[in-house]
Amino acid sequence: MIREPSASRVRKVIVLGAIPLAACVAACGGGGATKGSVNTATAPGGSKDQSKWPADDRSMCDWRNKPELEVSESAGPGAMRPNVRRVFKIIGEAEARHKTLICREIDTNLDGIKDVVRTFNQKGEALHEEVDRDYDGKVDVWINFVDGRMAQQDIDTNRDGKPDVWKFYVNGQLQRIRRDRNFDGKPDIWEIYSHGRLERVGLDETYDGHVDRWDRDEQLKYEAEAEDRKARNEMMNAQMAAQQDAGAPHTDDHADAGAPKKK
After folding, report:
1. How far apart are CA 81 and CA 184, in angstroms?
2. Domain map of the chain by residue range?
3. Cβ count within 10 A of residue 176
4. Angle at 102 between CA 100 and CA 103, to 5 degrees
5. What is the 8-class DSSP label of residue 142?
6. Is the pLDDT of residue 93 over 60?
């Protein structure tokens, strides 16, 4: 883990900057129904009584008054009424004409209000997603995709409508995270990841936009140094072997082939 004592402070900052959904739901209030020991929030205007779902489900797909689009409704697990909407568009002409999904939205907590939407390109690859994860009626997660894979995820943890955590991915793997502790719109914590593991953390303690201190994961540092030593040793051994071969006397199996034999 990151070395002490600075690591303890870093961990506290990270935890405070990313409130778990369950805790946020309990703290943020709002109506809800208890399922087991988990209190599931209800968006404003929504209802856990599916027979009383509102006529307006706050659609997040842009499909109304667009006859060129085709809409499909379906009910997911636990839903007695449709809670999933897919919007299709006709692409191409003649034999190349086909229908493709361009938007999908879901009411995940079954309160009659849509809270997740994802858009797609003409190849069916994901482009963008927005989520109301605490069911307060406001989007607090924004995700961008590149070639259908998640490339960036922005998160609003303090419900002010603006992201304060930015996560970046390469080939679907987390590479770095930026966090804004004082919610001024600028990052003041930088986390660098390697192979899915936290490698080092940069802290801006003066909030001037520059890193004042880097804390490094000592285990990763040790492993990197060990790999470097191993590579250097292998190179040195290879060089020594090459030098030994270069200085060794050569024998010629045919040197005496034409010499007369001694009697």
Report:
1. 42
2. 6-239
3. 15
4. 135
5. E
6. yes
